[in-house]
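Readers of this paper often ask what the protein records in our data store actually look like. Below, we set out a record of this kind in full and without editing:
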Amino acid sequence: NRLESNAEHWSALLLSLRELTEWVIRKETELNALAPPRGDLPALLKQQDDHRAFRRQLEDKRPVVESNLLSGRQYIANEPPLSDTSDTEASRENEGDSRGYRSAEEQARELARSIRREVAKLADKWNTLVDRSDAWGRCLDDAVQ
């Protein structure tokens, strides 16, 4: 039915946000592994080429990241704010019933919380990665001149 299809769509978005965050973390690790600019001109030019290739990977991924962030933000905008649930309601939510069953509404709230959290994490990590890559590129450019 339509409700299940919608839930599957948003669950797929959540998975995609998490996978993109993992990709960004791997790229952060790659950037951290790059040696500081040093050496003779050919070595510096090689580092510049490596950085350009790294930047191309970021630029290739940018539309996917931005599209997923936009979808996540649109989903969040259509959900009630988290402050609408009281502490007692939130604790009941986490408990479900004695068999661990959670209503569709509780599952939807949990999905919204997860999407909100992943959108914030991906946006932060993505912006940090792009900023650090920009700084690294400027550092290399300065070293070559």
Notes: The mean pLDDT is 86.
